[in-house]
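Ticket #4471: structure output looks truncated?

Reporter: J.K.
Steps to reproduce: submitted the chain below (237 residues) through the standard prediction queue, then opened the result file.
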Amino acid sequence: MYRHLKKYLIFIVGAFICSLFLVLAFTTDRKNDNSVNAKAEAAYNQTTTAFIGSIGETARQIGQDYNIYASVLIAQAILESNSGQSGLSQAPYYNFFGIKGTYNGNSVTMRTWEDDGTGKTYEIDQPFRSYGSLSDSLADYAALMTSSTYAGTWKSNTSSYADATQALTGTYATDSLYASRVERIIAYYGLTAYDQAPVTQTTGSTGSLVWNRYRGSYTDAETLSIDEAWASYKNYK
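Returned output as attached by the reporter:
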Protein backbone atom coordinates (compact mmCIF):
# COMPACT_ATOMS: atom_id res chain seq x y z
CA MET A 1 0.00 0.00 0.00
CA TYR A 2 2.80 2.41 0.93
CA ARG A 3 4.74 1.59 -2.24
CA HIS A 4 1.70 2.34 -4.40
CA LEU A 5 1.09 5.65 -2.61
CA LYS A 6 4.73 6.61 -3.00
CA LYS A 7 4.63 5.89 -6.77
CA TYR A 8 1.41 7.90 -7.05
CA LEU A 9 2.96 10.88 -5.27
CA ILE A 10 6.06 10.70 -7.46
CA PHE A 11 3.81 10.64 -10.53
CA ILE A 12 1.82 13.65 -9.30
CA VAL A 13 4.97 15.66 -8.53
CA GLY A 14 6.49 14.76 -11.89
CA ALA A 15 3.34 15.76 -13.74
CA PHE A 16 3.24 19.06 -11.86
CA ILE A 17 6.88 19.84 -12.71
CA CYS A 18 6.28 19.00 -16.38
CA SER A 19 3.18 21.22 -16.43
CA LEU A 20 5.14 24.02 -14.80
CA PHE A 21 7.84 23.80 -17.46
CA LEU A 22 5.21 23.85 -20.20
CA VAL A 23 3.53 26.93 -18.72
CA LEU A 24 6.87 28.72 -18.38
CA ALA A 25 7.83 27.80 -21.94
CA PHE A 26 4.45 28.98 -23.28
CA THR A 27 4.68 32.22 -21.30
CA THR A 28 8.22 32.84 -22.57
CA ASP A 29 7.13 32.18 -26.17
CA ARG A 30 4.21 34.60 -25.78
CA LYS A 31 6.51 37.24 -24.35
CA ASN A 32 8.93 36.73 -27.24
CA ASP A 33 6.06 36.91 -29.77
CA ASN A 34 4.73 40.07 -28.14
CA SER A 35 8.20 41.57 -28.18
CA VAL A 36 8.63 40.76 -31.87
CA ASN A 37 5.17 42.14 -32.68
CA ALA A 38 5.85 45.31 -30.68
CA LYS A 39 9.14 45.86 -32.50
CA ALA A 40 7.51 45.25 -35.88
CA GLU A 41 4.69 47.68 -35.06
CA ALA A 42 7.18 50.30 -33.86
CA ALA A 43 9.21 49.92 -37.05
CA TYR A 44 6.07 50.24 -39.19
CA ASN A 45 4.90 53.30 -37.26
CA GLN A 46 8.32 54.90 -37.72
CA THR A 47 8.23 54.16 -41.46
CA THR A 48 4.70 55.54 -41.72
CA THR A 49 5.56 58.67 -39.74
CA ALA A 50 8.50 59.32 -42.06
CA PHE A 51 6.25 58.74 -45.07
CA ILE A 52 3.69 61.20 -43.74
CA GLY A 53 6.47 63.75 -43.26
CA SER A 54 7.56 63.32 -46.88
CA ILE A 55 4.15 64.03 -48.45
CA GLY A 56 2.20 65.80 -45.70
CA GLU A 57 2.75 69.42 -46.69
CA THR A 58 2.28 68.72 -50.38
CA ALA A 59 -0.95 66.91 -49.51
CA ARG A 60 -2.05 69.92 -47.44
CA GLN A 61 -1.53 72.21 -50.44
CA ILE A 62 -3.36 69.84 -52.80
CA GLY A 63 -6.26 69.70 -50.37
CA GLN A 64 -6.49 73.49 -50.31
CA ASP A 65 -6.18 73.80 -54.09
CA TYR A 66 -8.59 71.03 -55.05
CA ASN A 67 -11.33 71.11 -52.40
CA ILE A 68 -10.44 67.65 -51.03
CA TYR A 69 -9.33 66.32 -47.64
CA ALA A 70 -5.57 66.07 -47.29
CA SER A 71 -6.13 63.66 -44.41
CA VAL A 72 -7.93 61.26 -46.75
CA LEU A 73 -5.26 61.64 -49.42
CA ILE A 74 -2.46 60.78 -46.96
CA ALA A 75 -4.37 57.89 -45.39
CA GLN A 76 -5.12 56.40 -48.81
CA ALA A 77 -1.47 56.68 -49.79
CA ILE A 78 -0.47 54.89 -46.56
CA LEU A 79 -3.04 52.14 -47.12
CA GLU A 80 -2.56 51.66 -50.85
CA SER A 81 1.26 51.82 -50.88
CA ASN A 82 2.00 50.32 -47.46
CA SER A 83 3.59 53.63 -46.49
CA GLY A 84 5.62 53.74 -49.70
CA GLN A 85 6.95 50.19 -49.29
CA SER A 86 4.87 48.35 -51.90
CA GLY A 87 6.37 47.29 -55.21
CA LEU A 88 3.83 49.38 -57.12
CA SER A 89 4.86 52.56 -55.28
CA GLN A 90 8.57 52.01 -55.90
CA ALA A 91 10.54 53.21 -58.92
CA PRO A 92 9.88 53.11 -61.81
CA TYR A 93 6.10 53.01 -61.18
CA TYR A 94 5.53 55.51 -58.32
CA ASN A 95 1.86 54.53 -58.03
CA PHE A 96 1.08 55.46 -54.41
CA PHE A 97 -2.70 55.21 -54.69
CA GLY A 98 -3.31 51.91 -56.44
CA ILE A 99 -4.98 53.67 -59.37
CA LYS A 100 -5.77 51.27 -62.23
CA GLY A 101 -5.49 51.92 -65.95
CA THR A 102 -2.80 53.79 -67.86
CA TYR A 103 -1.07 57.15 -67.42
CA ASN A 104 0.25 58.76 -70.60
CA GLY A 105 0.15 55.28 -72.12
CA ASN A 106 2.16 53.71 -69.29
CA SER A 107 0.98 50.87 -67.07
CA VAL A 108 2.18 47.78 -65.21
CA THR A 109 0.18 44.60 -64.61
CA MET A 110 0.15 43.29 -61.04
CA ARG A 111 -1.75 40.78 -58.93
CA THR A 112 -4.30 42.40 -56.63
CA TRP A 113 -7.07 41.51 -54.20
CA GLU A 114 -10.65 42.52 -54.97
CA ASP A 115 -13.86 42.40 -52.94
CA ASP A 116 -17.10 41.19 -54.53
CA GLY A 117 -19.04 43.66 -52.39
CA THR A 118 -20.10 41.15 -49.76
CA GLY A 119 -16.71 40.82 -48.04
CA LYS A 120 -15.57 37.84 -50.14
CA THR A 121 -12.18 38.47 -51.74
CA TYR A 122 -10.47 37.07 -54.81
CA GLU A 123 -7.23 37.67 -56.71
CA ILE A 124 -6.94 39.05 -60.25
CA ASP A 125 -4.32 40.53 -62.54
CA GLN A 126 -4.97 44.22 -63.22
CA PRO A 127 -3.15 47.00 -65.11
CA PHE A 128 -2.08 49.88 -62.84
CA ARG A 129 -0.98 53.35 -63.89
CA SER A 130 2.76 53.87 -64.04
CA TYR A 131 4.17 57.34 -63.27
CA GLY A 132 7.57 58.88 -63.68
CA SER A 133 7.65 60.49 -60.24
CA LEU A 134 5.88 61.01 -56.93
CA SER A 135 4.72 64.42 -58.16
CA ASP A 136 2.94 62.83 -61.13
CA SER A 137 1.26 60.31 -58.84
CA LEU A 138 -0.02 63.05 -56.53
CA ALA A 139 -1.14 65.20 -59.46
CA ASP A 140 -3.05 62.37 -61.09
CA TYR A 141 -4.77 61.51 -57.80
CA ALA A 142 -5.88 65.13 -57.45
CA ALA A 143 -7.18 65.16 -61.02
CA LEU A 144 -9.09 61.92 -60.40
CA MET A 145 -10.68 63.19 -57.20
CA THR A 146 -11.99 66.33 -58.93
CA SER A 147 -13.98 64.26 -61.43
CA SER A 148 -17.75 64.06 -60.91
CA THR A 149 -17.45 60.40 -59.91
CA TYR A 150 -15.91 61.50 -56.62
CA ALA A 151 -18.03 64.58 -55.95
CA GLY A 152 -19.07 62.90 -52.72
CA THR A 153 -15.52 63.30 -51.39
CA TRP A 154 -15.26 67.06 -51.91
CA LYS A 155 -15.10 69.34 -48.88
CA SER A 156 -17.90 71.48 -50.29
CA ASN A 157 -20.20 68.44 -50.45
CA THR A 158 -19.36 66.93 -47.06
CA SER A 159 -19.38 67.81 -43.39
CA SER A 160 -16.25 65.83 -42.46
CA TYR A 161 -13.61 63.49 -43.80
CA ALA A 162 -15.80 60.56 -42.68
CA ASP A 163 -18.35 61.49 -45.35
CA ALA A 164 -15.57 61.44 -47.92
CA THR A 165 -14.32 57.99 -46.90
CA GLN A 166 -17.84 56.59 -47.14
CA ALA A 167 -18.10 57.98 -50.67
CA LEU A 168 -14.90 56.13 -51.62
CA THR A 169 -16.31 52.72 -50.73
CA GLY A 170 -17.66 51.00 -53.82
CA THR A 171 -16.30 53.71 -56.12
CA TYR A 172 -12.58 54.10 -55.51
CA ALA A 173 -12.21 50.64 -53.96
CA THR A 174 -14.26 47.44 -53.97
CA ASP A 175 -13.22 46.70 -50.37
CA SER A 176 -16.42 46.80 -48.30
CA LEU A 177 -14.35 47.90 -45.26
CA TYR A 178 -12.40 50.57 -47.12
CA ALA A 179 -13.94 53.54 -45.29
CA SER A 180 -13.18 52.14 -41.84
CA ARG A 181 -9.60 51.26 -42.82
CA VAL A 182 -8.94 54.80 -44.06
CA GLU A 183 -10.63 56.36 -41.02
CA ARG A 184 -8.54 54.29 -38.58
CA ILE A 185 -5.34 55.53 -40.22
CA ILE A 186 -6.53 59.15 -40.08
CA ALA A 187 -7.40 58.86 -36.39
CA TYR A 188 -4.26 56.93 -35.39
CA TYR A 189 -1.84 59.39 -37.01
CA GLY A 190 -3.84 62.56 -36.40
CA LEU A 191 -4.00 63.39 -40.09
CA THR A 192 -6.82 65.94 -39.78
CA ALA A 193 -4.09 68.46 -38.90
CA TYR A 194 -3.25 68.50 -42.62
CA ASP A 195 -6.79 69.58 -43.51
CA GLN A 196 -5.99 73.03 -42.10
CA ALA A 197 -4.50 75.80 -44.25
CA PRO A 198 -0.74 76.35 -43.90
CA VAL A 199 0.37 79.07 -41.48
CA THR A 200 1.68 82.21 -43.19
CA GLN A 201 5.13 83.48 -42.11
CA THR A 202 7.35 86.38 -43.12
CA THR A 203 9.72 86.04 -46.07
CA GLY A 204 13.43 85.51 -45.78
CA SER A 205 15.61 82.53 -44.88
CA THR A 206 16.51 80.80 -41.66
CA GLY A 207 18.83 77.96 -40.66
CA SER A 208 18.74 74.97 -43.03
CA LEU A 209 15.22 75.84 -44.20
CA VAL A 210 14.33 77.84 -47.29
CA TRP A 211 11.42 80.14 -48.01
CA ASN A 212 8.72 78.28 -49.94
CA ARG A 213 6.55 80.78 -51.78
CA TYR A 214 4.04 78.09 -52.67
CA ARG A 215 3.20 77.52 -49.00
CA GLY A 216 3.98 80.92 -47.57
CA SER A 217 6.26 79.29 -44.99
CA TYR A 218 9.73 77.84 -44.44
CA THR A 219 10.29 74.25 -45.62
CA ASP A 220 13.26 72.05 -46.45
CA ALA A 221 14.72 72.13 -49.95
CA GLU A 222 13.20 68.77 -50.90
CA THR A 223 9.68 69.97 -50.13
CA LEU A 224 10.29 73.12 -52.18
CA SER A 225 11.49 70.95 -55.06
CA ILE A 226 8.30 68.85 -54.96
CA ASP A 227 6.16 72.00 -54.85
CA GLU A 228 7.99 73.48 -57.82
CA ALA A 229 7.38 70.29 -59.81
CA TRP A 230 3.72 70.37 -58.74
CA ALA A 231 3.38 74.00 -59.81
CA SER A 232 5.00 73.24 -63.17
CA TYR A 233 2.54 70.40 -63.69
CA LYS A 234 -0.46 72.64 -62.98
CA ASN A 235 0.86 75.37 -65.29
CA TYR A 236 1.49 72.80 -68.01
CA LYS A 237 -2.10 71.57 -67.80
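Triage note (M.O.): checked the attachment and the full C-alpha coordinate line is present. The two ends are 99 Å apart (CA to CA).
Status: closed, working as intended.
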